[in-house]
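Changelog entry

Holo records now carry the ligand SMILES as an explicit input line rather than a separate metadata file. Below, a converted record for zinc ion, shown in the new format.
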Amino acid sequence: MSLSRRAFLAASAAAVALPPALVAAESKPKKLVMIAGTPSHGPGDHEFNAGVLLLEKCLKDTKGLEVVVFKNGYPKDDSALDTADAILCYADGGAGHPLVREKRLERIGKLMAKGVGLMCAHYGVEVPKDLGGPEFRDWIGGYYEGGFSCNPMWKPEFTEFPSHPIANGVKPFSVRDEWYFNMRFRDDMKGVTPILSAKPSDTVRDGPYVYPKGPYKHIQEAKGRSEAMMWATERADGGRGVGFTGGHVHRNWGDDNYRKVVLNALLWVSKVEVPKDGVASTVTEDDLKANLDPKKK
Ligand SMILES: [Zn+2]
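Structure line, unchanged by the conversion:
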């Protein structure tokens, strides 16, 4: 919040005697808890720790936002979630997904019910369909379903963006990554707004995908269709949800638009106003080399 807005609120509180608690709640920074997954891939890929620390660095000057980072998986003491306004989960998913294993669906579900935001990135959008699938459709609008969604490495051309705060200041860009598509979205995309959409070429649909190699008939049969690789939703409980399927290749954080759209989403999901031109940030070569997971012996 700007100083002038704060001053205005203080003044209006004095003038109309707003309860002090209301003023305090209004000026309290939003709290974003970012959970980075454990190392799993070779150098430069699935660098969840380095990725989250880089995003944290880019957000450090954001007014009205407090960021808490947990590295190397779900925290042993997760009490920080009790006061979170939003959660980012950038981690390996599937059955080992940090938010679904060890009966955490119930814990996270209670947070969602009180309107906490949730953004999941890359493998973090994948959960088993019988362990988290229905919840993720509700919480973030859709999820990667094994055998239905696919995960080729490709270079979509993102040329048009919706009128949505997450797209603020984002210019056309194209980056090679493992952009999953054909998510299991809510029926008829109800309440889901695609943010990054592009048409995979026929070659991309024909595979091979990263794993399993495919190709899947239903993916090939949808040739020519545009697909959503990032999307946003506002839930009935007041919470916001975002899915982003890129994030395999760490170096991609060096692309200004790729980074901006994710930083914007982190503000939006936390209910912090996204600047008109989006979140401004710079990333150096050293930043991209910082905090990488140690090489496996
Ligand atoms: Zn990946």
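Spot-checked after migration. Residues 13 and 124 are 43 Å apart (CA to CA). The two ends are 47 Å apart (CA to CA).
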